[in-house]
Amino acid sequence: MRGEATGTAGGETGTAEVQALFEWTIERDQRIEPRDWMPGKYRSTMIRQIAQHAHSEIIGMQPEGEWITRAPSLRRKAILLAKVQDEAGHGLYLYSAAETLGADRTDLTGKLVSGRQKYSSIFNYPTLSFADVGVIGWLVDGAAICNQVPLCRSSYGPYARAMIRICKEESFHQRQGYELLMALMDGTPAQREMVQDAVDRWWWPSLMMFGPPDADSTHTAQSMAWKIKRHTNDELRQRFVDMTVPQAAALGVTLPDPDLRWNAERGHHDFGAIDWSELKRVISGDGPCNAERIAVRRAAHEDGAWVREAAAAHASKQARRERGAMDDAVEKPGREAV
Ligand SMILES: [Fe+2]
Ligand SMILES: [Fe+2]
Questions:
Q1: For a FRET experiment, which of 176, 178, 286, 312 has its CA 20 to 30 Å from that of 114?
Q2: What domains can you pick out in the chain, each with its CATH number?
């Protein structure tokens, strides 16, 4: 099923005809669908991007998930539970989208837990107080929205459609985070300090979520040409900064960057230099929580082995039963004819 359902007719390079159809589809801003022919490189780039995104959603459940049992009220617990559950759903849509390209889910999970595929570096930072839950919603989900809204127009159909629903939910996440921070800023001096401390810790890693600067980004040009990506890393980062500065002012927190100021000439905010060595270090596995995140994910996968075995046994039993029913149906008219 996999070979024929994933548009490999024409091979990796394809005939001139299928190549032209692919280019024409992209040019007209239409979607590439699972059965369409696509260049091997397009397929592998999409699988890598969607898998990395799916892994980020699933690993991203951990930093906030740690606070579900410690939420300060039933209301906050219910909100956080719903948010973390949404992230699991995002992971599921995305793994399903990767499967339409012929990727195997077990293989993708194997690549995640063995470190061969990445997830967003932001989830390798610890959540030290409940204010981190609010700041993650505000800044991390906010940055995710900036990154992901343009992906609703990604040239790969199943990914673009998954992103529409995901973005709606991310927008709820951002609002719940901001609402939580407003409540804390309305509280005691200690609560306000807790918010400022969380903002100080999450601001720079949030800016790093957009990836390396355009000059160092290896995949940008081809991904833009294929309309997998609609804006460069630096454009999206700038959009996020411009969007966030007035929100910080309304909240009454200071963003930890002495160089942050409005540039009337550019019509954008200027901001200070990002420590790219930190991003490289965290991506290559040396962030504060990398080992812990992967260990938790691996343990969850191993603990779930019996569920997968039971589900597979049930599915094959069902299939046998259905086959038996079909055989009976085929046999019956024969017997009647005799
Ligand atoms: Fe998400
Ligand atoms: Fe989210």
A1: 312
A2: 16-275 (1.20.1260.10)
Kindly identify the ligand whose nearest atom is closest to the C-alpha of 64. 2
Among candidates 207, 211, 196, 185, which has minimal Cα distance to 128? 196
Ligand showing the shortest atom-to-Cα distance for residue 87: 1
Q: Which ligand is nearest to the CA of 120?
A: 1
Its pTM stands at 0.89
Cα 230 to middle of ligand 2, angstroms: 21
Sorted by sequence, the CB contacts under 8 Å of residue 40 that are 6+ apart come out as 12, 13
Distance 29 CA to ligand 2 centre (A): 27
Cα of 4 vs centre of ligand 2, distance in Å, is: 35
Q: How far apart are CA 179 and CA 193, in angstroms?
A: 17
State pLDDT tens for residues 139-189.
999 999 999 999 999 999 999 999 999 999 999 999 999 999 999 999 999
pLDDT tens for residues 128-149?
999 999 999 999 999 999 999 9
What is the CA 182 to chain-centroid distance, rounded? Answer: 26
Other beta carbons within 10 angstroms of residue 302's beta carbon come to: 10
* Ligand nearest to the Cα of 54, by number: 1
Between CA 217 and CA 111 the distance in angstroms is 23
**The pLDDT of residue 2:** 39
